Amino acid sequence: MDFLRQQLFNIIAFVFLGLFVAVWGSVLLRVGFWVPDGRTVAPPLNGALVTAAGVLATSLSSLTASALGFTIAEVRRDESEQDARRPSGPAGQGSSTVINPSDVTARLSGRIVAAIIVYLAVGLAVLLLWLAKGTASTDLIGAFALSLLGWLIGAAGVVFQTEKRST
Asked: Which UniProt keywords apply (predicted)?
């Protein structure tokens, strides 16, 4: 029983990520292997699958983005506090605060890193399927692909962020 207590968060994360992969894998397979039949524009998906896929994608996107944002804010705060304790450079110049990516990733739990990798892998598969299938894919595929692109743009904004100068 102690093992379950110690691993409870990992179990919850594994179940959540496994469910995300299973639901989106099902969507990808149904859309990927669907051949236009002349009667319908896109493959029919039942309402439960569409709802589950949408909720899981939105939840995982929000969870990973907020975890990254909070972690970056913590690193910035800690570095600003350290800079405030240091004497300023020559002629009263402030020091520059650069966010070191390894400082951010070192503070992320393995569960968050796994969630980001799973979200990116499934999201990229969805994006590629959407680009390949075009109008023969579903609105659900298009919505997730656009959501992934938005997430990537936000993440890229952090990754390619230039040096910040504190005054």
From this structure: Membrane, Transmembrane, Transmembrane helix
Residue 48 burial (C-beta neighbours within 10 Å; 0-12, 13-18, 19+): exposed
Q: Are 142 and 123 in contact (CB under 8 A)?
A: no
Measured distance between the N- and C-terminal CA atoms of the chain, rounded to whole angstroms: 53
Q: Which residue has the tokens 């994006």?
A: 127
Bridge partner list, 164: 97
pLDDT for 79-126, tens place per residue?
Answer: 878 777 776 655 444 445 567 777 888 899 899 999 999 999 999 999
Contact yes or no for 130/141 (Cβ under 8 A): yes
Q: Which residues pair with 96 in a beta bridge?
A: 165
Q: Where are the beta strands (DSSP E) in the chain?
A: 96-97, 164-165
- Using a cut of 0.85, tell me whether the model's pTM lies above it: no
Distances 106 to 34, 109, 110 between C-alpha atoms, Å: 42, 8, 10
Helix (H) or strand (E) holding 63: helix 47-85
Q: Pick the closest to residue 21 from 110, 126, 152 (CA basis).
A: 126
Identify residue 80 by its one-letter amino acid code.
S
By three-state DSSP, how is residue 35 classified?
A: coil
